Structure formats: structure tokens, C-alpha cells
Amino acid sequence: MMKDCLQFLIEPAKKLKFRLKETRKRVKHVKKEPLTESQLFIMELARELNRICQRSDILAYIWTGEDVWPPHACREFIVETANILEMKENTETPMQVYADLHPEKRDWKSQLLSMLEQGGECDMGPYKRIIMDWTRGQRNRHPHGIWPGEAVLMMLDDVELQWKRGHLSHLQSAVELLIGVVLGEHLDKELIPRLWLGQKQKTQKIDCTGYIPHIVWNWVCDAAVEVTLDPETANPALVLSEDCKRMQCGLERREVPHSLRRFDGWWCCLGSEGFSSGRRYWEVEVGDRDWRLGVAKESALCKGYRPLNTQSGYLTLRLERGSELKALTTPPTPLPQSLIPRRVGVYLDYEEGQLSFYDTQKRAHIYTYSERFTEKLYPVFGTVEMVREMVIRPADLRERCLCKGQCLFC
User: Where is each B30.2/SPRY domain found (predicted)?
Assistant: First the structure.
């Protein structure tokens, strides 16, 4: 028995040691290459932030050269940060810093793309000056530094551990979080990780939010509700369980009462309850074959085979042919095959206009829809499985992280 217990501890330690060796090899390889001006600037920025924010030791990995970002990531980060800081100067309340920045309203997006294509190092001067002027101003205003708050420190510990394990390619998310702390110095520090994550998801920075820190994940899971299938909307080809928590395709179409809200084309079903306010979260085991999940607006039509996309009132994620994952925007947005989940978490924040999808087993962000909601939204489920059921998990089975500090099991 004692041997088994020790083995339980030894195996994870061996894996962690191997990952650390791989990380060091990667760092040495990167450090052999000459650093660009933008990479050196990010290192200097990390040093300055380390002086401004108390207990921000995680940034030492950046300014000592252990975590070196790709040149294009550095240039993009510099331009985005400079524009956010300029917006801050014209913003009355700190909360607006985290407002959704719609891509079509960012004049600098096209300029950034042009710069990245041409290398752009020589054009970065004005953006760098904006950032460094801001850091100098903050050091003068806060000679003793800013306290990030326990929630932020816990999140930084989590991010650092995941980076060491190789789950995060770089520590850009830590820099962004600390800049958010300084920008929102008057905010409740408990709110900052949630606001940061919401803003990153809405701007589709999947690489920065591929891993959801435990303190934010628990907050998402706290919105869990019981969701059931509505038999009156189910396609006649679907078979629902008695508790309306499971469904699969049957061998024959059933005789069912006529209803305007019943799907008669796509093999789909709506949830029995619609939502017009608040935060909601539910989890679904989807299987390996074609499926779709999301929400449908109350005015959306269910009849026929019209595309179930944003134009027809559906905000959904779909897997086609077992390997093609896409968000059904107009036109569809293809997603990397590496993001295909087996269990999906769906998070709806009605007031924030946010619908996010997660791989709950990896605790990773997949995709987020952002728009202003004005009508009731119903969960929607679709499957073509005839052997394996699509299962809506009970709300009390959501997988919270029980770690108070760094997550030991992710």
C-alpha cells in the first residue's frame, strides 16, 4: 500500500522534471538567436512592471530572458498595449478599460498587420514611447508599488506553474494581467481576473486564454444551472431519456404532435427553459461524431434545413465529420482541430453579451460570441449519434478546482 502511495507521488514528479528539462532546452535554443528591438523592449517593460506591482516576481522570467516571446507577438502586444493606454487617458472610469473592443472600430488593426508584414521594427518608436511614459508616470505616482490583491497573486501562481509545465507558450497573460491591475487600481482586486478573462475571450485571444486559471474557472462554474431537453421541440428522429438529460438518434421517426417550435429538419432539440438575464453555465458530453451546441434566440425558426448560424438567430459551435470544428458565424469560423473537446462547457453572461465555450477536461477556452442580447435565449443541442448518447451533466457534477494556490492536478 505504501509503495502504491509513493508511486502516486513519484510519477507526476518525473513528468514535471521532464517538462522542466524540455522548457530549459527550448529557452537555450531561443536565446541563441539574436533578440529583436521589440523583444528587448518587452524585457524592459517586464522589469518596470515588476517595480510597479508588488510581488510580481513571475516577470523575472521575462526580463532575465528565460521566457522570450516571438518577435511578431512582441510587436502586436506593444501596439495593442499602447492603444489601450491611449484609450485610458480619455476614459472617465477604470471599468471601461475592460469594455469589449470591437475589431471593426480599431483603426490600428490594419496598420498593425501592415507593420507585421514589413517587419515593422523601425515604426514601433511612438508606441514604445507611450508605454514607457506610462510606466514612468506610474512609478512616480506609486513609489512604494501597487498591491495586486490575493486573487491576482493566486492567478499569477497558477499561470507560472502552467508555463513551467509547458501548457502556456509564454507569460504574456501575466504581463496583461498586471497592466490591468495598474489600470484598474481603484477596482476591487477580486474582479480583475474575471474582467481580464472576459476581455481576452471577447477579442478571441485563444492563445492567451487556452488555459483558464482555477480562480476564474471556479467563478464560471458557480453559474451552473440545471438544464433539461424540451420534448416538444425535439426532432422526431431523436430519442430522449425520461429525465430529459440524454438524447440520441433513433432508428425510426416517431409520431409526435405538431409544433411550430419543433425541429423537423436538423436533428436538434431546445432546452426547456430560456434565459433573459444573469449568468448561466452547463456542461454536455458530446461524443466523437457530429454535434452542435449553443443557444437559439426566441425568434429563431426551427423548421427545415436552413443554416443554424448567427444570421438565422443561432449562436452555436459545431463538429462536422468528426474532425472539423467551427463556430457557425456568417461565414463560418473554422477552429483548430486541437480544440475539439469531448465534454463542452457553455457559459452565458446575458448582461455582458457573452456566450463562451470551453473544453472542460482541459479547462481551456474554445470560442466566444459577443453581441448585445435583446430576447430570450434557449440552449440548443444537436447530434447524429445512434449508439452513444449526448448527455447534459447535472449542475452539481461540475468540476471545480479545489486548490487554494497553484493547481496541483492540471
Answer: 207-399
- Best CA proximity match to 348, nearest among 300, 285, 279: 279
Does the bond joining 331 to the residue before it have cis omega, within 30 degrees of 0? yes
Please, what is the average pLDDT of the chain? 82
176 close to 208: Cβ distance less than 8 angstroms: yes
The helix-helix angle for 37-52 and 172-183 (nearest 10°) equals 50
The whole-model pTM stands at 0.77
**Which has the minimum average pLDDT: 99-103, 161-165, 183-187, 405-409?**
99-103
* Region 215-228 average pLDDT: 92
Percent of the chain with pLDDT over 90: 51
Quick: pLDDT tens for 2-18.
Answer: 555 545 455 555 555 55
At residue 106, the pLDDT reads: 45
CB atoms within 10 A of CB 323: 9
Superfamily of domain 223-393: SPRY domain (2.60.120.920)
CA gap 123, 76 in Å, rounded: 12
pLDDT at 296: 97
Q: pLDDT tens-digit profile of 57-72?
A: 999 999 999 999 999 8
CB-CB contact of 223 with 182 (8 Å) = no
Residue 13, Cβ neighbours under 10 Å: how many?
A: 9
Tell me if 364 sits within 8 A of 211, measured CB to CB.
Answer: yes
> Which segments of the chain belong to CATH 2.60.120.920?
223-393
